Amino acid sequence: MTIVPLPRRPLDPSDNSGGISGALACDAVRHWYENDLGWATVPGTPVHLITGLRFDVLDVPVEAGIAALRHLGPIPGPGSPVALHGGRLRLLVAAGSAEEVPGLLEWLDWGGLDLDLTAVGTGGRMAAPPPPGGAGGHGGVGPEAASQGAAEWLRPPEPGCEVEPSLPTMSALGGGGGAPDLVRVVDTVATHCHRVRLRRAGTRPSALS
Question: What's the domain range around 80?
Answer without folding.
Answer: 20-201
